[in-house]
Every structure is written in structure tokens, then in C-alpha cells.
Amino acid sequence: MSNSRDVLDGLPVGPLPIPCDPEGASPVQWMHMPNGVGVWAVSDYRLARQVLADPRFSRAAAVAPDVPKVASIDPSPDSIVSLDGRAHARLRRIVAGAFTGRRISALGPFIETRASELLDAMAAGGQPADLVAGLAAPLPLSVLCHMLGVPEADRESFREWVPVLFDLDGEGAENRTRAFLITHYMTKLIGSKRREPGGDLISALIQAADEEGKLTNRELVTLSLALLMAGYDSTADQITLAFLSLLHDPARTAALRDDPNLVPAEVEELLRTNPSAPLSFSRAVTEPVQLADVTISPGEPVLVFLMGANRTRDDSGNPAGNPHLTFGRGVHRCLGAPLARLQLATVIRLTLDRFPHLELAEDIDGLDWKPAAATRGLKSLRVHW
Ligand code: HEM
């Protein structure tokens, strides 16, 4: 049974059920997802950490054909986040080798410039403006294109194809064409980076892969598309939800505007309380495993409710006392966390500086939520200044 709540901190949580049980009365419970599939929901902080770090809770077993799929959009079985053990470690080393702190910091100036351009365009377009279409969605896509090395001239077509990654089960010739086009495009791009490497992530992946034992072009295409899938909606939705929380609380916004040094700590609190990734991907066990007072059987999906776990009180009773799990934990912990943090901090700082009187132009009870999927987000968020 679910004890999901519709409202947390005075804000609606959206279409996904979020078991949030700070008192720990039922840390593991059987519940049904919006698509009707039953899952073990783990929403206690300590148990959530255990499931994410315990290799008996396997990602590869969860994508096996006989395990029910908890979401219509699941990463493919050969994606980095669907592999276990050595196969995962090999890919992870390659991506981590290319995703260095230096490479992420070097993106800082690009993020600042692109965010400023988008804010200029928003100001010029008049108010009220849609913060999702104007800022939260285009910024991470530009950053990913820049990072992957998609040439400027191709970015417009790329922008049209990317949504297909989030609707892979979608029917219709148009979707199949877009899926073909983006795969074909990435294959060609990787071929050209092999011949003429640049300073971008794909060239770095090719080089790292060559040092680790070659990746085929197909593996590189899957990896680049996995990065786009992992890094686009999650960041766009997180920027939107961060502004929703901030603008819902004008005193909090004013404090940040007056002292931008508070932004990094505020970003962590926004990630904890209003995460765009409210759940982990599902896990499955290959033999019965005892978790708290239940026995998980093979074939039963297990989901960590990160948003609920983030609200478990620590030993001194403080709900904000534990480091949050919004970027996961263990071998699959988010590789893009530093990049997401950098984008969030930059966009919050620049936006409050540019629009010191930014306010919601929406009734929070009428928010336009995206359908339940891997991330929580809004289709639009109107603001004025
Ligand atoms: C606010 C934005 C983001 C959030 C909330 C987020 C959240 C997460 C979470 C919870 C996981 C672990 C899932 C699990 O174990 O079931 C994960 C994994 C991952 N994330 Fe992120 N992510 C974000 C942004 C990004 C970005 C910008 C990138 C890269 C461009 C990225 C790349 C990845 C990759 C590659 C993995 C899989 C790692 C592995 O399996 O070893 N993420 N993310």
C-alpha cells in the first residue's frame, strides 16, 4: 500500500506516487506504479543506501525480459546504467576517464554565456515568459551538444530529434524516422571524431576507450545517447523544480539574491527536497534477499524512492541531516552530478541577478506536469518580473 502524499513543503509533488515515511513505519512496502506494475518501494534512507550499494540488487537482472517493467521509458539493456559487474566497470572507467573535473570546470564559461543569452532573449520576449521553454530546457541541451562536440550548424536538427530518446516506445513513422536520424547522425559524428579528434567528450571517450580496450562504434553510439538521455531531461526538470521551490518562497529567493554565496548550499537543499529524479532505476535480485522485515524474491522489481529517503530523519531527528541521495549511490551513482550542480548554481545566480523581482505567474495548483516518467518535471512554468 502506498502512503504517497500529494503535497510536500506546500508544493504539489506531481503525477508520480512518492512514498515518504519519515517515521520509518513501513520502510519497504509493496505498491503499484502508474502503469499498474507492482514494486517493492524502499523509502527509508538507511535501506535505500543499502539497496543502491549492494551488488545482490542487480540492474542487469531488472532489465531481463521476465521482470515487469516499472516505467515505459527504460534504458536499453546495453546502456551503462543497465550493466553489472565487470561489463559495467569497464564502461564506467571509460566515461569517468573522459568526465574529469577539469573538463567540467572548463564548461563554466560556456554555461555562463549560454545562460546569459537565454536570459537576454527571455527579457526581450516580454512577460509573462515560460521559464521551461526559455531557459530550463534549452540550457542543458546546448551544454550537452557543446560537450559532446555536436557542431553548431547541426544543433537545430539535433534539437528536433532528441525528444525521441524519451519516447522510444512511441508509435508512428515520424518517431521511427527521428530515432533513425539521431542514431545515424551519432554514428557519422563518431566516425568523424575518430578520424579528426577534437577537445570534446566524444573524442575523449574514443581515446579513453582505446586505452581500456576498444569500444565498437555501436557501443560509442549507445554511450553517447545514454549520456544525452541521462543528462538532458534530468537537468532541465531540476532547473524548473528549483525555480518552482524558490519562487514559491520569496524570502528564500531574496536571501539568495542578496548573498549569492548561499547558492551552492541552496542547490543541495533543492536537490534534496525537490529532486527531478525521485526514484532510482529498478533493481532485481537473483536469489531471495531479506530487506528489513520482507523477503524480496527474484523477478520482483525493487525501486528506491530517493525523494522519500531524502526526507528520513537522521539520528538527531533532523530531516535535512543526511547527505541526499538525489544522484544515487554506489557503482551507478550519477557521473554527471558535478555538471548538473554547476548548471544549477550558474543559472540560479544569473537569473536572480538579471530578474531581481522574478515571480511565479502560475497558480501552483494548476501546474502543467509532464506525464509520469523517469523524471518529474513541468511542461511549462510561467514567470514575470
Ligand atoms: C539534476 C540532474 C541529474 C539528476 C537528478 C541525476 C540523477 C541520477 C541518478 C539518481 C542516477 C543513478 C540511478 C540509479 O542508480 O538507479 C544517475 C546515473 C547516471 N547519470 Fe545522472 N542525474 C542528473 C544529471 C546527469 C547529467 C548532466 C549527466 C551527464 C551528462 C548524467 C549522467 C549519468 C550517468 C551516465 C549515469 C549512470 C552511471 C552508471 O550507471 O554508472 N546525469 N543520475
Order of helices and strands: EEEEHHHHHEHHHHHHHHHEEEHHEEEE
Strand order of the largest sheet: 3-4-8
The name of the CATH superfamily reads Cytochrome P450
CATH class: Mainly Alpha
- Termini distance? 43 Å
Give the overall shape: globular
**What number of structural domains do the residues give?**
1
Report helical residue fraction.
Answer: 40-55%
Can you tell me the CATH topology?
Cytochrome p450
Bound molecules: protoporphyrin IX containing FE
- Summing up helix and strand content along with how strands pair, one would put the structural category as mainly alpha
- How much of the sequence lies in strands comes to 5-15%
Largest sheet: 3 strands, mixed
InterPro entries: Cyt_P450, Cyt_P450_B, Cyt_P450_CS, Cyt_P450_sf
Protein name: Cytochrome P450
Organism: Streptomyces luteogriseus
GO molecular function: heme binding; iron ion binding; monooxygenase activity; oxidoreductase activity, acting on paired donors, with incorporation or reduction of molecular oxygen
